[in-house]
């Protein structure tokens, strides 16, 4: 039997591994195989695009132009974001960006500064 975890989105047991990502064929959800929970804690390990461990209060840099949903604003490549907070969910970084305001970002689009 497979030792892969069930899909966190739909609970399917038919997940498979593709490199560093686990994939669910039922709902097409993809998640990092490295994003495991630490023993004893329910704290999720969140890594940036380069694989560096992120923590609350870190400063990160955006590595891709990101459109702001519902607005014509764009977060440009190289934008530094200070004092991040890690949260649960698909967008796992909560922050404030100068000139834009409060936002949630995905850790795969930032690198630790």
UniProtKB/TrEMBL annotation:
InterPro entries in the record, alphabetically?
YjdM, YjdM_C, YjdM_N
- Going by the entry's taxonomy, the superkingdom of the source organism is recorded as Bacteria
What are the Protein YjdM N-terminal domain coordinates in residue numbering? 4-32
Domain annotation Protein YjdM C-terminal: ranges: 46-113
| NCBIfam families for this protein | phnA
UniProt similarity note: Belongs to the YjdM family.
This chain belongs to the protein called Protein PhnA
């Amino acid at each position: 039997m497979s030792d892969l975890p069930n899909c966190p989105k739909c609970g399917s047991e038919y997940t498979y591994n593709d490199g560093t990502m686990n994939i669910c064929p039922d709902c097409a959800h993809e998640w990092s195989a490295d994003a495991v929970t630490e023993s004893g804690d329910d704290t999720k390990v969140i890594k940036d695009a380069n694989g560096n461990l992120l923590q609350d209060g870190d400063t990160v840099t955006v590595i891709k132009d990101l459109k702001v949903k519902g607005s014509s604003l764009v977060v440009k490549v190289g934008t530094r974001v200070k004092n991040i907070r890690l949260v649960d969910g698909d967008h796992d970084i909560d922050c404030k960006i100068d000139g834009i305001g409060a936002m949630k970002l995905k850790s795969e689009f930032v690198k630790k500064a």
